[in-house]
Amino acid sequence: MTDLKEIFECTRCGYCCQGETTVSLDENDQKRMVEALGLPEAEVSKKYWRVTGNVVQMKIVDGHCIFYEDGCTVHSGRPWRCAEWPLHPSILSDSDNFETIRESCPGINRQISYADFCRLLKKLMAIQAKIHC
Ligand code: SF4
Ligand code: SF4
To answer: Which residue segment(s) compose the domain that 20 sits in?
Structure first.
């Protein structure tokens, strides 16, 4: 059985939650976050979201996502792109993407080759697809 820990284990360094922009939230993300916070959507939007036209992102405070505080404080309600990171499918099609992501995420196993990483990631994705279908 392939275990996620063979390729990645989050160190909770918080690097991926830093910066002047965040991932955008689709409708399901917005719904999940509202539920996780247990607040009316209008309040969540006012307090936590930066809305530009149709694009909804999380606010940035002091150079990081508003939910970052020694880890993610909205973990169960975080956007799917946050949950997916750093195992982005683009890794599979381009080793440069793998290198770039590996450079920015210390949780990626540095002991295995690109080929082995892709082999294990594909297995995990196949398992996930079965779980969600
Ligand atoms: S950069 Fe990687 S190890 Fe650090 S918090 Fe983000 S996912 Fe975890
Ligand atoms: S929602 Fe959580 S995981 Fe995503 S950027 Fe904000 S603090 Fe990080």
So the answer is: 4-132
